[in-house]
Design a protein that fits this description.
With 297 residues, the protein is of the alpha/beta class. It is built from ten helices and 13 strands. The chain has a single domain, classed as Ribokinase (UDP-N-acetylmuramoyl-L-alanine:D-glutamate ligase, 3-Layer(aba) Sandwich), CATH 3.40.1190. 33% of the residues lie in helices and 22% in strands. The structure holds alpha-D-ribofuranose.
Length: 297
Amino acid sequence: MIAVVGSLNLDLVTPVPRHPVPGETVLGGDIVEHPGGKGANQAVAAARLGGQVALIGRVGEDDAAGVMAAAVRAEGVDTAHLARTPGVPTGRALIAVNPSGENSIIVSPGANSRLTAADCRAAADVLNRAKVTVLQQEVPDEANHAAAELAGGIVVHNPAPAVEGVVPPRHVDVLVPNRTELAALTGTPVPDTIDEVAAAAGKLSGAGAVVVTLGGDGLLLLEGTARLHIPAFAVQPVDTTAAGDCFCGALAVALAEGRTLEQAARWACAAAALSTTRPGAQPSLPHRDEVEAFLKR
Ligand code: RIB
């Protein structure tokens, strides 16, 4: 079983010809709404790829709460530990996507910011039994720290979005930052080359292994003194939203199935590449048979 502690957001997505600069208004296309949120995306990704998944999180008591809960439930995700917070909106994300598929996102966390350590303690049984627990940073640190303490299996922490000054939980087995998140964690400039990424990752302490996701450059896996660069799959991206979430969900499934970190990372790389070829967050997340077919191309 895989436990995901994390956020649920209703995504409001607008295509834009280019991202606005401060003070500028850009006319976009028609807005669409999708279920999203890094936690819910990771949970749905893992469920579509064959994982048995429980999601620990919070929504409000508005219409979006029902939409978000129904979306994850429809994928078979266990929502017994999805709580409602009265008087607070469900999380929402305002997303602009340019013609290259690059996004910019503003998150209004709403109920996600009310998730507590006590919520995680109430799910202690789930966290203790889970083969893999997945965390990210759209919920308060206290929830992540409590979940990592209670986790009985492998802890995967995706320090997204990048937040300066956040201290990742101590009990993390696999840390999965992208370049920007790595820079925020280490206080270094955003690394560009593979050597710069490796040097920045070398400044991290505590996590057992680090998998730096590099978008079109693939990923860099650092485990002990070993360092492995895995190139990206060649795809034509239309929307990169949730690619990192897809990667983490897929990584969790493969690790829960007993694959090595390298095997899991290669498989997750394929799932994430496939997700970038479709628009939206949860709508873009592939099913297992699609990933297997993609790998046989
Ligand atoms: O990682 C993509 C997600 O980030 C979106 O679904 C949005 O809700 C934000 O949380």
